[in-house]
Amino acid sequence: MNKLKALPKPVKLAFWVLLAILAYALPILEPPIISTPGVDFGGVLFVVTMYCLIALGLNIVVGYAGLLDLGYVGFYAVGAYTAAILTSFHANWPLLLSLPFAVAATTIAGLILGAPTLRVRGDYLAIVTLGFGEIIRLVAVNTEWLGDRRGISNIARPPSVMTGEDGGVVVGEAEPGLKGIFEIPHLYWGDGTVLVDTEDTTQFLVFGVLDQIPYYWLGLTVVLLVLLADYLIKNSRVGRAWEATREDEDAAELMGVPTFKFKLLAFATGAFIGGLAGALFASRQSFINPDSFLLLFSILFLAAVVVGGQGNRWGVLVGAFLVAYLPQRFRDFDDFRVLVFGAALVALAILRPEGLFPPRRTVRAKQMEHELEVLETGHDDGEEAARV
Amino acid sequence: MLLEVEGLCVNYGHIEAIRDISFGVPEGTVTTLIGANGAGKTTTLKTVSGLRKVRAGTVRFDGKDITSLAPYERVKLGINQSPEGRRCFVGMTVRENLDMGAFVRKDRKTQAYRDDLDRVLTLFPRLQERINQPAGTLSGGEQQMVAMGRALMSRPRLLLLDEPSMGLAPKLIQQIFSIVTEINEQGTTVLLVEQNAAQALKRSDEAHILETGAIVRSGTGAELAGDEAVKAAYLGGDV
């Protein structure tokens, strides 16, 4: 990272653009080392982008503001259910119209949950949020209006951009007869040869049933936007207030930071992103039921943030990638993959307790602890004398 | 009076930490609360900054009742505290710490802000040397300077200092106290809490002695420093 920072600005920019292009092209290239045999690679990548989104949102709550949230799946569910209700179950809205409502509903849910609970600190907050996640799921299970156990199907897909029969551009639901404005052929990796496979193509911006790559592109675009917003907010007054609150709540309050309001803001921002991910997920699946929102997911989301290094946006993205991707990549291990995943988590907790990529600050805090220890043991006598 | 505390009572559970304390801090002075451990000095200061709720009594700042205001609202009015044990943001650099001190200011991009930063760095030249170092890597004395400088960056009218000499080497204590005097001469009213009674009394205009949650003696710094009973109890004979 340091070497990267030293590069001149245009080079850096080119590097990021190249990286983004590579990310967009990944499912088309489908290199065998990272491809997922037995599961649709585009689908896996889409799920990865959802985890990335969730990890970025949860990172604001856990990593920036230091609030342990064990019920993040609840926000994900609120977003998904709002989109589902509005586009299929009780109304017939297009997805794009329902998105703002889904996100607003989730943000409000975040405020309602946060307003009473953020007054408690630490462990209590974890318990309360854990309960919240479960309550949301149980409400969905037991409410007929929300489709109870059977769930909700036929959730609207994003609008496709297609070539109509008369050659003009049509925007709307994907239809079997219509093609995209252009086709992108995939690469075919044979034994030692790489071919462009014109038989296997992705219709550009057609959100159909089988080809998941357009959803991945949509997800990736949203991730990039959220990443930009995350960068701006972290370097603003708000970001500094979060950091101060996390480090020392009383001291932050003494500096004039209304800590409660800023914690609530972190909670609402996190909920906003979680709801967005939920709505996109529901749209892609076209079907949701309460089993999509088990407590297990809250834990996996938190694992993504902690594994990657809470507080570091690049770290949590890596964490999200690993948590969403590894189990799919190693499907060959069958049921053992859960065991392997668990073992990997334990190993990580022992070897890198701050996560794979801890933020600069955590590294510095560690250094400081060590240096202070040396200082204190070295100057004990002087300090004692000074106290008299 | 810039600050008036009247009939203050504070409880920790069933234990009375402070019983009916009243005192004032006149504008432009250094006023000191001295007393032994557990006498209620820090608790008193916390009720002034708002970290601690009161059971009874009022706190008035510049004539305005602030008893029920949150700490961050009091900062806006012009009260800032350098808390006990420094409480720097250890992960942030010295500059970021000072910047946090100016959190409530809206003029952070103006010359006035840079002037104040210069003023703090002139008071504490050591901080200039360490400006980009994380506060956690500094020594105790330097962290004390960060905590005081941070509090000053909000341009407080009333600066609350909680045991600035705690855990410091004697030479550094001298230095910190002369800086307190300097800050006061530049126009900031100071309410100081100290265990180092000798130094504190020498530098304060007014002083109050706390014992088990109540004020037992009040007077000018010089008066109390010359008082035989005070000498015996807090100054340990020949200091």
UniProtKB/TrEMBL annotation, chain A:
It is a multi-pass membrane protein. InterPro entries: ABC_transp_permease, LivM-like. Its main location: membrane. The keyword Transmembrane helix applies. It comes from the Bacteria. GO terms for molecular function: branched-chain amino acid transmembrane transporter activity. Keywords: Cell membrane, Membrane, Transmembrane, Transmembrane helix. PANTHER family: HIGH-AFFINITY BRANCHED-CHAIN AMINO ACID TRANSPORT PROTEIN BRAE, HIGH-AFFINITY BRANCHED-CHAIN AMINO ACID TRANSPORT SYSTEM PERMEASE. This is Branched-chain amino acid ABC transporter permease.
From TrEMBL, chain B:
SMART domains: AAA. One of its GO terms (biological process) is L-amino acid transport. Residues 3-237 form the ABC transporter domain. Gene3D superfamilies: P-loop containing nucleotide triphosphate hydrolases. InterPro entries: AAA+_ATPase, ABC_branched_ATPase_LivF/BraG, ABC_transporter-like_ATP-bd, ABC_transporter-like_CS, BCAA_Transport_ATP-bd_LivF, P-loop_NTPase. It comes from the Bacteria. One of its GO terms (molecular function) is ATP binding. Keywords: Amino-acid transport, ATP-binding, Nucleotide-binding, Transport. The keyword ATP-binding applies. The keyword Cell membrane does not apply. Pfam families: ABC_tran. Belongs to the ABC transporter superfamily. This is ABC transporter ATP-binding protein. It comes from Nocardioides antri. The lineage of its organism: Bacteria, Bacillati, Actinomycetota, Actinomycetes, Propionibacteriales.
